[in-house]
Amino acid sequence: MADLLGWQYALIGLIFVWSGFVRSGLGFGGAVLSLPFLLLILDEPLVFLPLIAVHLLVFSSLIAWQGYRRVQGERDDSSQGNIDWAYLKSSLKVMIIPKLMGVFGLLTLPADIMTSIIFAIVIVYAVGYVLDRPFRSNNPYVDKLFLMLGGYVSGTSLIGAPLIVAVYGTHVAKHQLRDTLFVLWFILVVIKMTSFLIAGVDLQLIHHLWLLPCAFIGHLIGERFHRALVTAETPLFFRVLGAVLILVSLMGMARSFGLL
């Protein structure tokens, strides 16, 4: 990133503000909704993926801790918290092996085909949310298949969130969804960052000095947006969730076909 022009740095900063807003506002989408725009400025994914990964580690920890403190201060029943640990553990058991396979590139299916399949499935989920008829599988093996695909795509890149969120949205309570997802992202990103370190990828540490504050501005705005979503009626929350999933999926498919 050393040879970029001033206006390019300014656009990158604005995109990371957007990334922080989406991440804290919805609990996902910070990577997949910002990476296509970043690649329009500099078409080198390995420049931006470590930056996004570090931001995920920082803000997922911050948001999960804030959620824990908030719930401790507000609730009367100590049997419930801001994280659905039971579903988190059961889903991780399904995702961990595909995640590792994605990290080490053990599957041979072309990435563009895999990504298109993932986003097509997500659109089916998302349309149900928008129409207030969310898809709910009566077959746990179908959800496991989707989690495995999401784990694999998360291993090859950082864009597996939409499919994972579509499944989590049907199993995790609304007030626990965002914080549960952030704990999941933290675990998955630690695995991804380990692969970056082993491969000797430049983590762009110097650029965190100015991009982390940009993301933090977006984070603060997103926090207000998330509080408004959680207090809204459930149909509105899931319609917004579905609309964002459709947007994410269409952008992902456009990117895989070279349109972005």
Can you offer a commentary on this structure?
The chain is mainly α. The chain is 75% helix and 0% strand. Helix 4 runs parallel beside helix 8. It is globular. The relative contact order is 0.20. The model has no long low-confidence stretch (mean pLDDT 81).
Summarize the main sheet.
none
Q: Please tell me how large the radius of gyration is.
A: 18 Å
Share in β-strands: under 5%
End-to-end gap: 20 Å
Computed structural class? mainly alpha
Summarize the amount of helix as a percent range: over 70%
What is the tally of beta strands?
Answer: 0
**Helix tally?**
10
Order of helices and strands: HHHHHHHHHH
Shape: globular
- Mean pLDDT across residues: 81
The stretches of 5 or more residues where confidence is low (pLDDT under 50) are none
Brief rundown of the structure:
This protein has 260 residues and is an all-alpha fold. The protein has helices at residues 6-26, 35-41, 45-74, 85-103, 111-130, 140-156, 161-168, 174-199, 208-231, 234-256. It has 10 helices and no strands.
Task: Please give the structural blueprint.
Layout: H1 6-26, H2 35-41, H3 45-74, H4 85-103, H5 111-130, H6 140-156, H7 161-168, H8 174-199, H9 208-231, H10 234-256
Helix pairs in contact: 1-9, 3-8, 4-6, 4-8, 5-6, 5-7, 5-10, 6-7
Keywords:
single chain, mainly alpha, globular, 75% helix, 260 residues
